[in-house]
Amino acid sequence: MQTAVYPGSFDPCTNGHLDIIRRASKLFDKVVVAVLINEKKNPLFTLEERVAMLKEATKALPNVEVCSFSGLLAAFMRDNGYKVIVKGLRAVSDYEYEFQMALTNNALFDEIETVFMPCSAEFMFLSSSIVKEVAKYNGELHGLVPPEIEPIIKRRFGY
Ligand code: COA
Fold this sequence. Notes:
Distance between the termini: 44 Å
Bound molecules: coenzyme A
Structural class: alpha/beta
CATH class: Alpha Beta
CATH superfamily: HUPs
Oligomer: single chain
Shape: globular
Number of helices: 6
Strand content: 15-25%
Mean pLDDT: 96
CATH topology: Rossmann fold
Strand order of the largest sheet: 3-2-1-4-5
Radius of gyration: 15 Å
Number of strands: 5
């Protein structure tokens, strides 16, 4: 059984993330969406909120599981017997950083392979920060985030 881990902050998850999760769930037997407990990024949504939003957005995908981790991704992979990381690439500019991360993760645990998936063209511009910027001014979120989580974001931003 081949499991892929899709790591990220998901603050909040976007349609771009969901696009990668959906497509990865067709390629792998199981996809583990791993939400980083990242003190450095000072997330807007708590870990519990980010996990709950992802669970809601992926509830129709039976082979997708959502969990959280702290510390090094390579250690999380090794401790759980996972060997494949999936990452989405939106533009060439993502590549340099992602390449560095892939090599670092492999240097830390040499059984790790990173698989890059090009994001769908319609989501090239998307990021969690863009969603928060739009939401700050109570802009239209339709098409940017999964419909299930729209109300949660709107509540937080006082629409
Ligand atoms: N669609 C839309 N947005 C996407 C996307 C996609 N397909 N892929 C990435 N993004 C966005 C993210 O939302 C994020 O947006 P933001 O900066 O506005 O919040 C941005 O692109 C960067 O994404 P990503 O590179 O995945 O960063 P991340 O913070 O979400 O997650 C980890 C990074 C968790 C994978 C990485 O920090 C990690 O592994 N940390 C653990 C520590 C570790 O092991 N470090 C490596 C060795 S030193």
